[in-house]
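During the reporting period the student researcher (J.K.) took over the structure-prediction task from the postdoctoral fellow and processed the backlog of single-chain submissions. One of the processed entries is reproduced below for the supervisory committee.
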Amino acid sequence: MTTKKFEILVLNQIAQIGLKRLPSESYHVGKDVAMPDAILVRSQDMHAMTIPDSVRAIGRAGAGTNNIPVKAMSVRGVPVFNAPGANANAVKELVLAGMLMAARNLPAALAFVASLSGDDEGLAKRIEDGKKQFAGVELPEHTLGVIGLGKIGSIVADTAIKLGMNVLGYDPEITVDAAWGLPAQVKKAHSIDEVLKASDFVTLHVPLLEVTRHLIGAKNLKLMRHGTVLLNFSREEIVDPKAVVEAIESKQLKYYVTDFPASVLIGNPGVIALPHLGASTREAEDNCAMMVVDQVRDYLENGNIQNAVNFPSVAMQREVPYRVAITNANVPNMLGQISGAMAKAGLNIHNMLNRSKGEMAYTLVDVDSAVSEAVVAQIASIPGVLAVHYVPRAQ
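J.K. obtained the following structure tokens:
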């Protein structure tokens, strides 16, 4: 059997160390692919893009997928993969840098030194007279509140503990794996309000959802201790910037440290704004590219799904060469209809795995003989089936 090459469209600059994991004998990778099987993207906004019907998967070389029309892809049965945790260390280091900048008033101190002029004797006197205004605090014994205890939040908490800080964490959606990986010294909070009231520093690590939009706003900013430092390396819309400006003016907040410099924040001395540097390290870009490429490749070649934001995780070891991957609405009797269609075609099911996530269900079926295009078309015609892909192992 001759297998055509998979066509991969690349948007943005994806690290070569990741793209090299797509073997040239079975993949064609480029920026001008007309009918791609999959798309790899970083930050390009795909909402206004016409996504060809040929697309079977989208891979985001990063964590957030707000630039991808996930709902529309779900309707088409297209998984959207991301790379959660691949940039975690890069973000953790930037959060730590932000805490240190705020604790020691470094941006204002740097600006003060940059404004000086004159000879060494005059500089020395002005520096000695001026340095008092930049006196700061040390991190040990202060309390860091961590809202969101996924991969990034957990390693931020661990680093803070190693620096001698007290850590208070809150995450109502924490996974079992994340809970196991959380340092035992993290004190569990029961609400966001509890974190805000008890912390000297608060760092946010939650995804942008409708329920988390302006999660931190005028009402709960008033709960914070006077002089608190708020850090946002999550998403811009998690925090209401106008409310932050008011909190800085009232001295409720000493600093707002953010990776998202909204116009209302620019020039405010209480704002330390960075140009979206969270994942901007060579290592993070490499890790994200490798992780998402491996996931997209495993899906195209084996139908397995890991880290798709709109699909359940499904992985089944191959014991026979012939596999069908089916995406369908999570409704009764779908498995019966699928297996019935295969039985009618004389196909013996060797193994089957079905998982669901909300309204979406995904099934892998291994059979003992080759599957014809007619059988694939028959399964695709079942009401509620969104996509069917025959993924035989390359011979």
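The committee noted the following: The chain has three domains: 1-87+282-310, 88-273, 312-395.
J.K. will present the remaining backlog at the next meeting.
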